[in-house]
Design goal:
By secondary structure, this protein is mainly β. The protein is built from three helices and twelve strands.
């Protein structure tokens, strides 16, 4: 079992009180969706009542309910790169492989490179990206996402069209399948700053049209980083 499947509780929102029913219901839905994505090897049935409250679920003695949600998932493997200027914000790029000239997705994340590097020092990083159900685009085509980093709300992630600099950075890393390092700013025409990167193989799990996740594969422990990124559309 890969390392990313062993994790502590993931909290999407904080300071939820017993009287804040709307936030509690939405948080439970997000947590349930993340758990579905983290258990891709079986068909799981999550039983709930129409109010979708945590107290409605049970594992030992199921009660009659008015609805149920059946879940199954599929997975594939892609190349993922997290990179950014030392003094700038981080970007997350997904490609079909390390040499592909056309990224499947490029997101500018809400956090600066230095802040994300600090979050990654523990070896565990969970990023949850949430969009609204009002949008009808396919999930990865959504333009703006609420972003949570290790359980903390940190702003918004935005889908970007790769710039010339982005494409040059990716071109210089095309021989890197797995690894971390620095691309000299001088080599790409930036005299003031260097670019840090982390690249590896990611398992992409499609839970549903409203939920996907990307999990860094580190079978040999070379990267020493447990990293998962969740894309969720709230209902």
């Amino acid at each position: 079992m890969r390392s990313y499947r062993s994790m502590g509780p993931t909290h999407i929102a904080t300071n939820v009180t017993t009287v804040d029913c709307h936030k509690q219901v939405r948080t439970w839905r997000l947590l349930r969706t993340i758990m579905e994505l983290l258990i891709p090897t079986c068909n799981c049935t999550f039983v709930h009542t129409t109010d979708d409250h945590p107290s409605s679920t049970t594992t030992n003695h199921p009660k009659p309910t008015t609805s149920s949600t059946s879940f199954s998932s599929s997975s594939s493997f892609l190349t993922g790169t997290i990179f950014g200027y030392k003094k700038g914000k981080v970007k997350f790029c997904i490609q079909s492989n390390s040499t592909s000239p056309n990224p499947i997705l490029l997101l500018e994340l809400a956090v600066p490179t230095t802040i994300l590097a600090r979050e990654m020092r523990s070896g565990l990083l969970r990023i949850a990206l949430e969009c609204s159900s009002e949008q009808t685009n396919s999930l990865l085509e959504m333009p703006v996402w609420k972003m949570y980093c290790n359980g903390k709300r940190v702003g918004f992630a935005v889908k970007r069209k790769p710039s010339k600099t982005d494409m040059e950075v990716l071109r210089r890393m095309k021989s890197v399948v797995v690894g971390a390092g620095i691309v000299s700013g001088k080599e790409i025409g930036c005299q003031e700053d260097d670019i840090l990167y982390l690249r590896g193989n990611f398992e992409r799990i499609r839970g549903s049209s409203d939920a996907q996740s990307f999990h860094l594969i580190d079978p040999d422990g070379n990267i020493n980083q447990d990293l998962s990124i969740f894309f969720l559309r709230s209902r």
